[in-house]
Amino acid sequence: MRDHIRRIAAPTLLITAKYDRIVPEFYSQQLARLPVGVRKAEIDSGHLSFLEQAAPLATMISRFVDSLAAPNRTGNGIMHGRVFRPNDVAALIEEAATDAQ
Known about the structure:
Elements lengths: L1 H5 L5 E6 L7 H7 L6 E6 L5 H4 L1 H15 L8 E3 L2 E3 L1 H15 L1
Parallel strand pairs: 1-2
Antiparallel strand pairs: 3-4
């Protein structure tokens, strides 16, 4: 894993879960040392944050993507020709979580 981590050259959002008892903090500490700089965020959930806190997770991800993308005339972030809005991303995550159950 360390070899793969060293090859990351893109802006990176490191989201940790406050109550995660599965992934040791050691791993997030390793990721935080990336040479490209890592933006860190913590979500108030356990390991399955995409199920436990879908909307806040989507908002974190959308804001990160928006911060990297050039804004269009409406102020929404654009990445690879697609517009991402927190509510749209949250809806997709919730839909996937429902399908998984």
